[in-house]
Amino acid sequence: MNEHAAHTYKQQQVNTASPAKMVFMLYEKILSRLQEAQSAIERKDIQARCNANSNAQELIAHLSKTLDMDQGGEIAFNLEQLYSHCLIRLMDVDRHNDPQAAEEVIGLLRPIRDSWYVLSEKSEGELRQAIMAVQQGRPAAQPTGERKSAGDETPAPAKSTLSISA
């Protein structure tokens, strides 16, 4: 595939992505850049390491700046703390040419990326149903084929003040 076609395809993906998919894609890009930085360290390519690590830091800073501290509550606060920690650790990638610092950040962000992937694969209707169920203090409807049996009682999730709107 030529470079122009690849760029057009990527642009189309971004333009049609849901907000959850966009966040997932940001995490994907961060992890990719950190792996590039690690690879550059192995090759002793200082410029490539610096470029990749700098790009990862910019993306993490963007995620941090877009946190909604008013509605996000404890989750937003915890993410802000995590992002700050990641940015501090990524300074060590450049300062000490340390691939372990990049690996630590990858390990911290990968589970969050995976959660955003699961969320991005849900339909908008499923998400609205789950949010309404949580707000009403009852368990969210389970996908078809995963019905509970009489003995599988799970307490209802706590009510949330966080809202997601389209």
Automatic annotation (TrEMBL):
Keywords: Bacterial flagellum biogenesis, Cell projection, Chaperone, Cilium, Cytoplasm, Flagellum. Residues 135-166 are annotated as: Disordered. SUPFAM superfamilies: Flagellar export chaperone FliS. It comes from the Bacteria. It is found in: Cytoplasm, Cytosol. GO terms for biological process: bacterial-type flagellum assembly; bacterial-type flagellum-dependent cell motility. Pfam families: FliS. GO terms for cellular component: cytosol. Belongs to the FliS family. This is Flagellar export chaperone FliS. The gene is fliS.
